[in-house]
Amino acid sequence: MLTYMRNFRDKLTARQEEILASALEIVAQEGSRALTMKRVARAVGVTEAAIYRHFKNKRHLLLALYGYVKELLLSELSPVLAEDLPAPEKLALFVETMLDYLSKHKGINLILLAETIYHQDEELRKAMLDIFSSFRELARTLIMAGIASGHFERHTDADGFVICLTGMIQSALIKNMLEKDTVGNFDLEAAKKTIPGCILRGLLPRAESQGGAG
Q1: CA–CA separation, 66 vs 144, rounded Å?
Q2: What angle (nearest 5°) sits at the alpha carbon of residue 89, between those of residues 85 and 95?
Q3: Which of 46, 136, 152, 164 lies in disulfide reach of 203, CB 3.0 to 4.6 Å?
C-alpha cells in the first residue's frame, strides 16, 4: 500500500498536487458539477490555460482526483494496521479513522461514486473500484489478523464482515450528509462506538461476545 502512495506522488508535480487538492475541496464543498477547469484555476490562483498544461481536460483531472483520493484514504488507514493494539481495539480505531476521514473530506467517496454511476465511464468505474478494493483489502487484513491472533472467531467469513462494515460506514455517511444542519443532526461520535460494537458482536468468540462486546 505504501509503495502505491509513493509511486502515485512521484508521478505528480508540486503544481499538480496543488491543483488536485483544490479540486478535491471544490467537489467536497460544492459537488462535482462545480468542478470546471476555470473554477479550479480560480481556486489555485492561476490562469485556466495553466491548468490545461497539467491536465488536458476535466475528465483527465477527475481520473487523477480518484487516485489522489485513494492516496489520502490509504495514508489515513494504513497506519492503523501497524498499531500495537488488540484486534478489537484496532477495529474500533479503524472505523473511527475512516469516519473522521469521510467527515473531513465531506463524503468525497460517495460523491465520486455518484459521479461514476452518472457518467457510466469504464475508466472511472475501474478507478472507483480501486478505491473500494483498497479499503476492502485493509479491512480484510485487519480481520484476518484478528482471527489469527485468536481475538476473532476462527470460522469468521472475513469478506462478509468487510461488506457489512462497508455498508454500515456508508449508511452512517449518508445519514450524516442528509441530516446536516437539521434537527436530527448526525452524531459522529456515537457512530464511532455503535459500528464497531455491532461488528464485534459477530466477530468475537461466542462466549466473549455474549459477555459484553458493545
Answers
A1: 27
A2: 120
A3: 152
Q: Report if pTM > 0.70.
A: yes
Distances in Å between the alpha carbon of 60 and those of 50, 160, 189? 15, 34, 37
| Residue keyed to cell 496543488 | 18
- Distances in Å between the Cα of 199 and the Cα atoms of 158, 170, 172, 194 are 11, 14, 14, 9
Residues 177, 163: Cα–Cα separation, whole Å: 21
Maximum Cα interatomic distance, the chain, rounded to a whole number of Å = 64
Report pLDDT for 182.
Answer: 54
pLDDT of residue 3: 42
Sequence-ordered list of residues with C-beta below 8 angstroms from that of 173, at least 6 positions apart, any chain: 99, 102, 107, 109, 110
User: CB of 26 within 8 A of CB of 39?
Assistant: yes
What pLDDT score was predicted for residue 119? Answer: 81
Which helix (H) or strand (E) segment holds residue 114: the answer is helix 108-119
For the chain, list the domains and their CATH numbers.
2-212 (1.10.357.10)
Please, are residues 28 and 108 in contact by the beta-carbon 8 Å criterion? Answer: yes
